[in-house]
Amino acid sequence: MSGRTATRFATVGVVNTALDLTLFWLLHRSLGVVAANVVSTSAGMALSFVANGRFTFGDRLSWRAGALFVATTDRPCGCSSRW
């Protein structure tokens, strides 16, 4: 991974984390902790997929890639949100 790619990857990670924390903080009182966690984590994952695909790696995103991403990240997200 080049230095430029690593910097972009880290930038997306920081923005993703900020979105996740902000949404959780805004939603946890009205939705409850579990629902707020699911919404904020899902939004962060979607942002991460799109931003890393387009901005970091310059790829064209496809429905297939999106489906594979959801299939491999949905289960861990769902399990951690239930605890």
What does this structure look like?
The chain is mainly α and about 80 residues long. The protein has helices at about 5-30, 35-55, 65-80. The N and C termini lie far apart (about 35 Å). The mean pLDDT is about 85.
List the main descriptive attributes of the protein structure presented here.
mainly alpha
Give me the secondary-structure topology.
Layout: H1 3-31, H2 33-56, H3 63-82
Q: Distance between termini?
A: 35 Å
Helical run tally = 3
Biggest sheet features = none
Low-pLDDT sequence parts: none
Mean pLDDT: 86
Order of helices and strands: HHH
Radius of gyration: 14 Å
Count all strands and give the number: 0
**Helicity level:** over 70%
User: What percentage of amino acids are in beta strands?
Assistant: under 5%
Question: What's the shape?
Answer: flat
Q: What would you call the structural class?
A: mainly alpha
Oligomer: single chain
The gist of it:
This protein is an all-alpha fold. Helices cover 88% and strands 0% of the residues.
